[in-house]
UniProtKB/TrEMBL annotation:
Residues 1-23 are annotated as: Disordered. Residues 37-83 form the F-box domain. PROSITE patterns: FBOX. InterPro entries: F-box-like_dom_sf, F-box_dom, LRR_dom_sf. GO terms for cellular component: SCF ubiquitin ligase complex. GO terms for biological process: SCF-dependent proteasomal ubiquitin-dependent protein catabolic process. The lineage of its organism: Eukaryota, Metazoa, Ecdysozoa, Arthropoda, Hexapoda. This is F-box domain-containing protein.
Length: 429
């Protein structure tokens, strides 16, 4: 007898058992989802610190407002060792909230304001006092596009521990006419190695005398300081008796000429020199076109830091107009003063009118010059290339874009100095 097999050996599950299985399955899915997608607060403090160190200070301040635990972690001193608030301009009213996060371990602070903002952008003495009190190990201070009252805030109000100071784009008002703003800076900041004064229209050449006395200064950036060429006498004195450790010098977009660059050729430690003609002067073909600019400069009397120096020039009939903007284009004469030079030197002049000459005597002006940038000067020609090929033995990078060097002159330079990277206006470099 054949019997039919039962479809199921177990009784049908009740509805309550199915509900239990469904609940357990959903709980298991939630557990797996938590494991694969954990919440940020599930991490340990050490892990959160490693994540937060990749955020900028402004984002850290925002995160600190989210919950109490993150607020405590954000206060960790390791996150505030180097502080850069330049992602967006900071108004003075908000600056007080920012500096609350600074720590004694903070070694670098960078802030940026907005000179074109309608609100007041003048830094207060309280700000500098707070930095000196809190950041006792501060080595780098970068202040950009703020106003500073030179009558209330002196250079001695800055932290004395600074090794790098930048006032790029800042405006200093109420400056004294008889004293440089950097007076006694060499005593107050003896460890300063880098000074950046880019686009500081208040900077005048008489301040070079004070800056040149800095005992450890290696980098000086004065690009876009348009008043720098008002008086070559200060440049001459500063370079002759100072700048004993200067290595990097940025003079781009300044109205300097052969005389000033020739003065800096006396700086034997110089390794990087950057020169570029201002855009307002690039189309000037002759000195006649510079006369309106000359007359405008002559209306601004030079600032004298040393009364004796000023009296000497006046009594000696010194003509300031010869050193204003009349000769602000760099030529081969300035470039040929760099590197080493060869000349004949008289070593004996006897009574019998016999002159003994020692030939091939080398004068090392910048024996370690590695980088030279000289852009957009039409009076720089192949003569500069010939001189540099023979006398700049340490040169590694040369930029002569916008000059009057020829393709043939560049090829000749390359054949003589194949290890030097040269940048020109030609397609093939």
């Amino acid at each position: 007898m054949k019997m039919k097999r039962s479809r199921s050996l177990s009784p049908k599950a009740s509805s309550s058992e199915e509900d239990m299985k469904r609940v357990k399955f959903e709980e298991s899915e939630k557990t797996n989802d938590i494991i694969t997608h954990p919440h940020v607060l599930d991490f340990s403090d050490d892990v959160l610190l490693n994540i937060l160190k990749y955020l900028n200070p402004k984002d850290l301040m925002t995160i600190s407002l989210s919950c109490q635990r993150l607020a405590q972690i954000v206060q960790d001193k390791t996150l505030w060792r180097r502080v850069d608030f330049r992602a967006a301009p900071i108004l003075l009213n908000d600056l007080k909230e920012y500096i609350k996060f600074l720590q004694p371990i903070t070694i670098s602070l960078a802030i940026r304001g907005d000179l074109y903002c309608e609100n007041d952008t003048e830094l207060s003495l309280c700000f500098f006092n707070c930095i000196k009190t809190t950041c006792i190990q501060l080595k780098e201070l970068i202040i950009e596009e703020y106003c500073i009252n030179g009558d209330e805030i002196q250079i001695t109000d800055f932290p004395r521990t600074i090794e790098k100071l930048s006032l790029e784009g800042c405006k200093i008002e109420h400056l004294r006419s008889n004293k440089s703003y950097f007076f006694r800076m060499n005593f107050h900041m003896p460890n300063l190695t880098c000074l950046i004064l880019s686009n500081c229209q208040w900077f005048t050449p008489h301040s070079l005398l004070v800056i040149s006395k800095m005992p450890k200064l290696k980098e000086l950036r004065l690009n876009s300081c348009h008043r720098l060429g008002e008086c070559v006498a200060y440049t001459s004195l500063a370079t002759r008796f100072g700048f004993k450790t200067l290595e990097i010098l940025d003079l781009r977009d300044t109205a300097l000429g052969d005389s000033e660059v020739g003065c800096f050729s006396c700086t034997k430690t110089l390794t990087h020199l950057y020169l570029e003609c201002p855009s307002s002067l690039r189309n000037a073909e002759s000195s006649d076109e510079l006369r309106p600019l000359q007359r405008e400069a002559l209306n601004q009397l030079p600032v004298y830091e040393d009364g004796n120096l000023a009296q000497f020039f006046v009594e000696d009939g010194f003509r300031w107009e010869n050193y204003m903007f009349g000769r602000c284009l760099i030529t081969d004469r300035a470039i040929c003063a760099l590197g080493s030079d060869t000349c004949d030197r008289i070593i004996n002049n006897s009574a019998e009118e016999v002159i003994v000459v020692e030939g091939d005597k080398r004068i090392f002006n910048n024996p370690h010059l590695k980088t030279l940038v000289v852009r957009n000067y039409p009076h720089v020609t192949n003569s500069s290339l010939v001189h540099l090929a023979l006398n700049a033995s340490s040169l590694e990078h040369l930029d002569v874009s916008g000059t009057s060097v020829t393709r043939q002159g560049v090829e000749t330079f390359k054949s003589q100095r194949p290890n030097v990277k040269i940048v020109t206006s030609f397609d093939e470099t």
